[in-house]
Design goal:
heterodimer, A: about 300 residues, alpha+beta, globular, B: about 375 residues, four-stranded mixed sheet, elongated
């Protein structure tokens, strides 16, 4: 264990880059704040959203936060430092948690995807975060560590508002755990895209559907950039369960998603347009998830294909 | 033009062909237009995009637009220096902002001096060091600074020929510059290298020349009471023309427009630097797509820009770049820049937005009146028509 730490500067700023979770949570208890990929923290400070904290603990040297591996009960364990690029390339994610690959593959730019992490994407708690919807719909939970111990929080209970979640300042997000995907499950995440790279969700939707005997037996639907947090839409899920997963059911789910949205008007688009697009994008991801559940091919990332790309 | 064509029941390309300037036409401010190839740009762009032929895929449509732009005549200066070791340097007041126009100057000087363009060093961007130039604007760098470069190079060429004439005991008129040497035409073994001439050129014999290049004549003032006034007259020296034809796909449910293919044909006279010119049109088209679809400065009621970052002021990215088919008419223009070249800085981003707006209208019936044709505007226009 070789911790790299700087002496406090004249302004009292400190920076350390330890190699163990214990050292990180000790630093957090002493008032330091985490920096991982820095794609939100640093960019946001440049935009005047916040100041970079005076006392930073960088976690990129902590091996126990890295990698993907099989999780409990046939699920998937994701270290907090797994990058979007790794998620988009991972064969298990692409085959069993396809919506997550759809989402990770379109975050920001190539550079963002190479350094931005799944832990950071969740903790930043943006209503427009790409990976939040898929992780929520796959039934994900996060492990939060502090000097006082660890707790596990379901993502259903994690987000509390724009940029806000239940994580405490002294806690580190260690991992994300996804349960096993049931046989016959297909999933899709897509967003409305004004251009093909360097984009942020103006409207996004996730669908995870399980089909058995020609009927939808389970469904999860979430909306992105349409409410104060990424959130599930139980009415859309109810519209799908028991249906044949066809166009009519997908439209009902889309309408339910639009009804559940509370979009804002901003530089990225007016609220009425966003609400209308909630119905369109949700219907499209449901149809794509059903296609995948039935073994059909929708290329990853689905966003490009669902926008009528070449 | 497309709407006029619709009113007339004409094909929009045919209406343009009937109305575009041709040789001998009189411009709107009375100037005589000569060696104008606007119609050829229209016909070639239409051909490259397969206009009126072939089946378009579901949701796809084609749009065409023409544009013109001046080559702005003004004074400009260049020094060329051949150093003691024979290496040439161009010192210019011209500015390089990525168009490659300054990089074209050694091609012009190298040809006149018999020197490899790659052997030149360039001093530019420095208004203290270089002679005056109007700057990287007005599509004028090659048009004016290129003429100044030719002027300076020709002065140096004459000096070199006279120096070599004494050494080679030949008439200067019988000498030529090639491959870094001055040699007797027809007797290449009777030669002297430019480097050796430069090494002996001391004092007031130093090989430094200045070039200015008189601006080409501008039309008589005529009526300058119009809104463009005198500027309009000068801007009609060696006008450039271009036609862009685009194939787009509109997602009717979301209003998202993807540009799939652009054919861009420019009449900018002779092309001096083919690589640079093609790059300039490629960039101009991509900027035109941004104007058409995504670039908008939004200002709040408090007067502040609401999207001062490149995340929300949306330039097109490399991933958005469509297939481009780029063509040049390439015919030298009279009273123009070096070799009969005309401006190419701004012209290639003029016609693209109109062509895209026309393609959207052709595909959806929705006529977008305000650019950019952002997804929610296109969606709203389509909704309005369908309501």
């Amino acid at each position: 264990m070789t911790a790299i730490a700087s002496a406090p500067t004249a302004t009292g700023a400190t920076y350390s880059a330890p190699t163990s979770i214990d050292e990180v949570v000790t630093a957090l208890a002493a008032g330091s704040r985490v920096v991982a990929g820095g794609t939100d923290l640093v960019v946001g400070s440049r935009q005047g959203k916040w100041r970079v904290p005076d006392n930073l603990v960088a976690i990129h040297r902590v091996q126990d936060l890295k990698g993907l591996r099989p999780g409990a009960g046939g699920g998937l364990w994701l270290g907090a430092l797994v990058t979007h690029g790794q998620l988009a390339e991972d064969p298990t994610v692409r085959s069993s948690y396809t919506a997550l690959a759809d989402a990770a593959a379109i975050v920001g730019s190539h550079a963002t995807r190479n350094v931005g992490t799944v832990g950071g994407n969740l903790v930043n708690a943006s209503p427009a975060a790409e990976t939040s919807g898929p992780l929520l719909c796959f039934g994900g939970s996060v492990v939060l560590a502090s000097s006082g111990g660890r707790r596990t929080v379901s993502l259903d209970d994690f987000f509390t508002g724009p940029g806000r979640s239940v994580i405490r300042p002294d806690e580190l997000l260690v991992s994300v755990e996804l349960p096993a995907a049931a046989a016959g499950t297909g999933s899709c995440y897509a967003r409305l895209e004004y251009r093909r790279q360097m984009e942020i969700a103006v409207v996004g939707a996730t669908a995870v559907v399980t089909i058995f005997g020609g009927r939808v037996t389970a469904a999860r639907v979430a909306i992105t950039a349409l409410a104060p947090t990424v959130r599930r839409v139980p009415e859309a899920e109810a519209a799908l369960v028991g249906s044949d997963g066809g166009r009519a059911a997908a439209e009902l789910a889309g309408n339910a998603a639009a009804a559940a949205s509370s979009p804002i008007s901003d530089v990225r688009g007016p609220a009425d347009y966003r609400r209308a697009m909630a119905a369109v994008i949700t219907r499209r991801v449901v149809e794509a998830a059903v296609t995948r559940a039935r073994g059909g091919d929708v290329p990853i990332p689905a966003s490009a294909a669902l926008h009528g790309a070449q | 033009m497309d709407e006029l064509a619709a009113e007339l029941g004409m094909d929009p390309v045919a209406l343009r062909r009937k109305n575009l300037f041709v040789d001998g036409d009189e411009g709107p401010l009375g100037q005589y237009l000569d060696s104008i190839h606007a119609v050829e740009t229209l016909d070639r762009a239409a051909e490259l995009i397969n206009y009126g032929k072939g089946n378009l895929a579901e949701g796809e449509s084609i749009g065409v637009a023409c544009g013109w732009w001046p080559s702005f005549p003004m004074a400009s200066g260049v020094y060329i220096k051949i150093n003691g070791d024979g290496s040439p340097t161009i010192i210019t007041g011209a500015q390089e902002c990525g168009t490659g126009a300054v990089m074209t100057l050694p091609i012009l000087a190298g040809e006149i001096l018999g020197l490899d363009p790659n052997s030149f060093s360039l001093v530019y961007q420095d208004t203290e060091t270089g002679p005056w130039d109007g700057g990287a604007g007005g599509s004028q760098t090659l048009f004016n600074n290129g003429r100044a470069t030719v002027d300076a190079a020709e002065t140096l060429r004459d000096r070199l020929l006279n120096m070599a004439a004494d050494l080679l005991e030949a008439n200067a008129a019988d000498l030529e510059l090639a491959d870094g040497s001055v040699r007797v035409k027809g007797s290449p073994d009777r030669s002297v290298t430019i480097a050796s001439l430069a090494s002996t050129a001391n004092g007031d014999q130093q090989l430094i020349a200045k070039g200015t290049g008189a601006p080409p004549p501008t039309p008589a003032p005529g009526d300058t009471s119009s809104c463009v006034g005198r500027l309009g007259m000068e801007s009609f020296a060696a006008p450039t023309f271009g036609t862009h034809a685009v194939r787009v796909k509109v997602d009717r449910e979301t209003g998202v427009v993807r540009v799939l293919e652009v054919a861009a044909v420019q009449d900018s006279g002779a092309i001096v630097n083919q690589v640079g010119a093609t790059g300039q049109v490629t960039g101009g088209v991509l900027m035109g797509i941004g104007q058409a679809l995504s670039e908008l400065i939004q200002v709040g009621d408090d007067g502040r820009v609401r999207n001062p970052y490149l995340l929300d002021y949306k330039l097109q990215t490399m991933a958005d770049a469509p297939e481009m088919k780029i063509g040049f008419i390439g015919v030298p223009a009279p009273d123009a820049g070096p070799k009969g070249s005309k401006g190419l800085g701004e012209p290639p981003c003029i016609p693209t937005p109109g062509a895209i707006a026309n393609a959207i209208a052709n595909g959806t019936g929705a006529r977008i009146r305000q650019l950019p044709a952002s997804p929610h505007r296109v969606w709203a226009a389509i909704q309005g028509l369908e309501a």
